[in-house]
Amino acid sequence: MTTVSTRGMKKITIILAIVLSNVAFGQGMLSFRNCLDLAIKNNLDLKTAENNQQIAKYQYHASYGKLLPSLIASVDDKNSWGRDINPKTNTITELDIKNYVGIIEAGFNLFSGFSVWNSIKSSKLEYQINQSALLKVKNLITIDLAQKFITILYLQDVIVANQEQIKSSENQLELAILKFNSGVIAESEVFKIRSQKATEELNLLTNQNHLTDNVIGLKQLMNVPLNQEITLIKPILNLDKNLIAETNPFEITQKAVLLHPAYSISLLREQKARKELAIARSLRYPTLTMRMQARSNYSNVEPLVTFQDQIDRNYSTVLRFNLSIPIFSQFETFARVKSSKLNYKQSKINVEIAQNQLSKEVLKAITDTKTAVKRKESSAIAFEFSQKSYDADVLKFELGKININELNTTKMMYNSSQAELIQSKYELLFNNALIQFYLGEEFSL
C-alpha cells in the first residue's frame, strides 16, 4: 500500500488549486483574487503610475551626473573671401582664408551653496513619492474593485429576490382575476395588484441597469473587453471577531494611518519641501567653478607648414576659476526663499490633514463594521418575522380573510427586510476586509 507524505499532499493541493483556478478563469468564472490580478496587470491608471515612477527613477539616477564635470568638444570651420585678418600675422589680407579650430573644454562646479546635493536628495524624494503614489493607486484600484465586486453580487441577489416577488405577484394576480370573475372582489383589487407588479418590474429593471453599470465598471478596472462574459464567484464571509471586538479602535487607526501610502506621500512631500527651501537658500551663496580648455587650430595661410606641425605648434591649454558672488538679484532670491518657506509650512499642514482624513476613514470603517454586525443580526430576525407574516397573509388573502391592501403592506415589509438582509451581509463582508486591508493585509473577499 502506497502512502503519501504531508508535504506531498500539500504540493498536490497547490497544483489542483492552480489548475482549478486556471480552468475557472478560462470559463469566465472569476474570484475576487482573479479580478484583482487582472486589474493589477492591465489597469490603465496603474500603468500610468508605473510610467511616472520609472521617469522619476531615471531623473533621480541622472541627478548624480551633476557631481561630474561637463565635457564639450567643438570644431569651427571658417572660410573667408576678400579682406580679412590673417590669423598668422594678425594683419589685413585679401587672401582666401580657411581656418579650422578645435576645442575640448571641461567645466567643474566646485561649490554652489550645496544646491547640487540638495537637488539630488530632492530627486530621490520625488522618486520615493512616485513609489508611494504607485502603491496608493494600487490601493484605490483594490478598494474600487472590491466595491464593484460586492455591489455586483448584492445586485444579483436583489434581482433574484425581485424576480421572486414578481412571480408571487403574478400568482396573486391570477387568483385575484378568478375572484373578480366570480364576483368575490371588486375590480379595484385587481388594479392594485397590477400596480404592485408594475412597481416590482420597475425595481427589477432599475437594479438590472445598476448591475450593468457596475459590471462595465469592473471590466474597465480590469481592462478586459466589455463583451467578455464573466461570472463572479461568491466569497465566504470570514469575520475577524477579535478585530471587531477591539476595545480601542484608536490604536488600530494609528497603525493603519502609518501604513497608508497617502500618509507616506505627505511626509515625503514635507521632506522635499525642506530640500527645495535649502535649494532656494543656496542662491545666497557664492558659486565657484573651474574650467579647463585645450585648443589648437590649422590655417591655409601657412602652406609650407604641415597640418600636424600646425596643430602641435598652435596647441594651448587654459585653466580658469570663476567666483560669482550674488549681491542683488532684484528680490528674485528673496521671493523664492519666502515662497519655499511657505510651501514647507503648508507641507507640514498637509501631513496633519492627511492624518486626519485617514483617521476618519479608518474609524468609519471600524464603526461601520461593528454596525454591520448588529445590522446583519437584526436584519436576519426581521426577515424571518416578515417572511412568516407574509406567508400567513398570502394564505389569508387566498381564503378571503384580508384584502389586497393588507397583503401589500405585509409584502412591502417582506421585500424591504429581504433587501436589508442582503445589503447587511455584503456590507459586513466589505467593511471587515477593508479594516484588514488598512492594517497591511491583502484585500481578501
Would you mind describing this structure in some detail?
- The chain starts with 5 loop residues before the first helix and ends in a 7-residue tail after the last helix.
- The longest helix has 67 residues, at 115-181.
- The strands form 3 sheets. A 4-stranded antiparallel β-sheet has the order 2-5-7-8, covered by helices on one side. A two-stranded parallel sheet has the order 1-6.
- By secondary structure, it is of the alpha+beta class.
- Helix content is 67%, strand content 13%.
Strand arrangement across the biggest beta sheet: 2-5-7-8
- Main sheet overview: 4 strands, antiparallel
Strand content: 5-15%
By secondary-structure content and strand pairing, the structural class works out as alpha+beta
Q: Globular, elongated, flat, extended or rod-shaped: what is the shape? A: elongated
Share in helix? 55-70%
Estimate the mean pLDDT confidence: 84
Question: End-to-end distance, in Å?
Answer: 41 Å
- Could you give the order of the helices and strands? HEHHEEEEHHEHHHEHEHH
**Which residues sit in consecutive blocks of at least 5 with pLDDT less than 50?**
1-27
Number of helices: 11
- How many DSSP-defined strands? 8
Gyration radius, rounded = 39 Å
